[in-house]
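thread: overnight batch results

M.L. [08:02]
morning all. the overnight job finished for the chain we discussed friday. pasting input first so we're all looking at the same thing
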Amino acid sequence: MVLQSLPSSGVAFRKILSHFPEELSLAFAYGSGVYRQAGPNANQKNPMLDLVFTVDDPVRWHSKNLKKNWSHYSFLKVLGPRIITTIQNNFGAGVYYNPLIKCDGRLIKYGVISTSILVEDLLTWNNLYIAGRLQKPVKIVAMNENATLRAALDKNLKSAVNAAFLLLPESFSEEELFIEIARLSYSGDFRMVVGEDKTKVLNIVKPNIVHFRELYGTILQENPQVVHKIQQGRLEMAWPCSRTLAVHIVILPLEAHSR
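M.L. [08:03]
and the structure it wrote out:
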């Protein structure tokens, strides 16, 4: 697994993180506030920074965050951390967002998801919302030593590769692979069905090929089902098509079979 840690710019992200309770199993930043994207908003100055916080105990975390950042929450804050957590866990994709927050001079949006729900999504793709986010390059702001979470993150990336293989010919470019992975990663995002720019996938992949290579390079090199020709930026299936298809279907997450 090659989830990217932060370079020097990580200091600014960690400064933002200092405004929140510390009990995080994973925190990552994603989107146009972290990686350049093509398209009409390519030259946008200071785009909103998107963050996701993964926590082992959402009730405890929200309780502490309400004390530190009461103004971040909607009217739900008056109902308390237990109701907020119930809504978080049982509605939508298992994530609770506080949008349009001014923090350390940046406009941010942050989501909170429980570690157990994230692990389940990474392994089964039952929502493929945050799991989908993690199939594209992200910046890791904080991560603890949770071995189960780390293994699930790795499995999610391998599953994304295997799912994309099913939709590609026997020979294809790295860019074609990454476009297919990014397209699949939005399967759990309702905005891509209604209202989202249909060229968003290309706008994400094309300026960030190097980051996709960093994320998936080791997985592709170690995958016995393809020959990865790094210098040419191409891949070829190593097995006959029928056998490859059968293997990919067997090792995909359960929910992927119905997508």
